[in-house]
Amino acid sequence: MGTPPERLLDTGGVAEAAGITAATVRLYLKRTRKRVAGGLGVRPADFPLPDDQFGRSPAWREGTIRAWLAVRPGRGRPTPSA
Questions:
Q1: Which structural domain, as residue segments, surrounds residue 60?
Q2: What gap in Å lies between CA 15 and CA 39, rounded to an integer?
């Protein structure tokens, strides 16, 4: 059989996985969308754009969030430059 499809996370699920609030997830997404709209593109440590959308609700694959968490700058670590 194949592997089962990867689970999708909504804003609340991403917040729980990252240990942040849903409001922070929305803020991070807004910042990434602003960079993209400004033609700057997405840096590796930037919050990922959604993998899917259901109505107005964004959704991310678990793997997308795991990859972001692996490179996410933490307190005291410098942010990688573009």
A1: 8-71
A2: 27
Separation between Cα atoms, residue 82 and residue 76, nearest integer Å:
19
Q: What is the pLDDT of residues 8-19, one digit of tens each?
A: 999 999 999 999
What is the tally of structural domains in the chain?
A: 1
Does a structural domain hold residue 80? no
Q: What's CA 20's distance to the chain center, in Å?
A: 12
Q: What share of the chain is helix, strand, coil (3-state, %, to 5)?
A: 40, 10, 45
39: helix, coil or strand?
Answer: coil
Residue with tokens 């602003």: 34
CA count, 13 A, side-chain hemisphere, 71: 13
Q: What is the pTM (predicted TM-score) of this model?
A: 0.80
Tell me 49's DSSP state: P
**Contact indicator for 18, 25 with CB cutoff of 8 Å:** yes
Predicted confidence at residue 79, as pLDDT, reads 53
